[in-house]
Amino acid sequence: MLDNTFFKLTHDRKLTVGYFGGSITEGAGASDASKTSWRARVTDWFRTNYPDADVTEIQAAIGGTGSDLGMYRCDIDLLAEEPDLVFIEFAVNDSWMAYDAILLQTESIYRKIRKHNPYTDIVCIITTTQTITSGLEKGGEFTARSAHSVIAHRYGAPIVDVGNLLHFEVLKTGGDFLKFTTDTVHPNDQGYAIYTNCITSFLKQWADGADDTYASHTMPSPVCGKVYENACMTECTAADSYTADGFTFVGKSLCGRYPSYIEASVPGSTFSFTFTGENCGFYWMLAKDSGDALVSVDGGEELSLRSWDHYCKSFNRAGPAFFAKGLPYGVHNVTVRPADTKADESEGTVLRIGALLIS
Hints:
Layout: H1 3-12, E1 14-21, H2 23-26, H3 33-36, H4 38-49, E2 54-59, H5 67-78, E3 85-89, H6 99-116, E4 121-125, H7 130-137, H8 143-154, E5 159-160, H9 162-172, H10 189-208, E6 232-235, E7 240-245, E8 248-250, E9 261-264, E10 270-277, E11 280-286, E12 292-297, E13 303-306, E14 317-324, E15 330-338, E16 351-358
Parallel strand pairs: 1-2, 1-3, 3-4, 4-5
Antiparallel strand pairs: 6-16, 7-10, 8-9, 9-16, 10-15, 11-14, 11-16, 12-13, 12-15
Helix pairs in contact: 4-10, 5-6, 6-8, 9-10
């Protein structure tokens, strides 16, 4: 299953492991994400079982985000660090999306990884929540799990359904999700231990059965009729035909997720650019003082986007917002300006945009 991974560990004595997902991979709910999350514990498993190998961890998970943002940030956040093995976990955050969209976004990520390095192994991790398991118990479908599984099978990536095991433990101990999670979504240390044990038990099996070979993975024909292998994040000031009036460049981190951003709060400010593709969005900051953006594409009617939600009352974070989807492929003109409207509980009308998401 992971022949290349174990070859690297035993022959090259080094391995770079990438963790690509949402808050459950980031470690939300753990007493110490760097020690008790499933991500940290799996890294420790490699280091403990292969003490002579140099094991490097890439923490490329962002809470509250799914494969829709993942396919755009894959190159910068994950592939730039040259992973040998990638764990992908977006099933929970993808659960509200349409099946076809999940399929396309996930396949785009897999193809990006394998195009960058055909020797990279991939593992598909399926997590869960109380809401998801309740739906399954009533005969519903876990659409994201189905879509992720289709792509994993197509690209020869093993699937580890840690969520199914957690659900079993919940049922076995009385049915209370809060015994193993902090909020029915994010595991506590006990829940993360269940996730870890499930993953490492498979790792032991794969290690025992690994062939002593290092070979490239074959790139299959795509499941989707169209994939976005060239989906990318572009710094605002590097966009084609970039002009700004009232937007200023800020050389500070966008919530630790992007190195810089542009910002404005005065309604008369404008930011204009062109992009070549079919889809476009913002990678921006959702903050306690964020306002609304008015976006016009190709001179069309302005679309209002809100860069604030109720989570902003507790913390600021980076996230995506899409304003152009499914356009005819080609060059498109975009104009952005702050609106004079905002959420009632927002403290301001500031827009902070780190990058453009283009495919």
